[in-house]
């Protein structure tokens, strides 16, 4: 389990369109939103990433960068980037599943073709949403066991505004006996 205020696992992946996403090299004022999604086969992911794409500039106004990440290969990641019209949202791919597990993501097995007729990979990670500080410490985290009921990015923006205004620390950091 990831612990708030502690360093997150490293994350270095290729980006659709070229270049590399390297979490340890991010130079944003307030951090990075890392949105792990299931892959091209997931219609809910496409809708979710479209919402994030619309808010990338709003996050940037607050000093936060954004990236969407999946274990899909390059072609499927390109297809997803096109499907969600990703112009501001960076789309990273080739997430190793052992790294997904390091982030606390759940792993699922294929059930064949989805409702939109795209084959699921043999194994893939379920969604997760994280806000990581510029020092690469966990600020916020949410993971799902399936594609439904995800945090809304507009609510994350509102929470970010509150946290900035009130210098609100990451919570859930206690690891002692209970």
Automatic annotation (TrEMBL):
CDD domains per the UniProt record, alphabetical: PRX_like2 (cd02970)
All residue ranges annotated as the Thioredoxin domain in the record: 2-165
PROSITE patterns associated with the record: THIOREDOXIN_2
One Pfam family per UniProt: AhpC-TSA
Official protein name in the record: Peroxiredoxin
């Amino acid at each position: 389990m990831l612990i708030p205020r502690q360093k997150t696992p490293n994350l270095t992946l290729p980006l659709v369109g070229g270049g590399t996403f390297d979490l340890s090299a991010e130079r944003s004022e307030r951090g990075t939103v890392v949105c792990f999604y299931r892959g091209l086969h997931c219609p809910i992911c496409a809708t979710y990433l479209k919402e994030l794409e619309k808010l990338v500039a709003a996050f940037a106004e607050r000093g936060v960068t954004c990236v969407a990440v999946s274990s899909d290969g390059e072609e499927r990641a390109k297809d997803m980037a096109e499907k969600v019209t990703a112009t501001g949202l960076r789309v990273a791919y080739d997430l190793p599943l052992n790294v997904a597990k390091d982030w606390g993501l759940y792993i699922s097995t294929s059930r064949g073709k989805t409702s939109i007729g795209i084959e699921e990979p043999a194994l893939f990670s379920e969604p997760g949403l994280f806000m990581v500080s510029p020092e690469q410490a966990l600020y916020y985290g949410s993971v799902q066991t399936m594609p439904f009921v995800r945090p809304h990015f507009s609510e994350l923006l509102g929470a970010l505004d509150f946290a900035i205004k009130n210098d609100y620390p990451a919570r859930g950091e206690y690891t002692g006996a209970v």
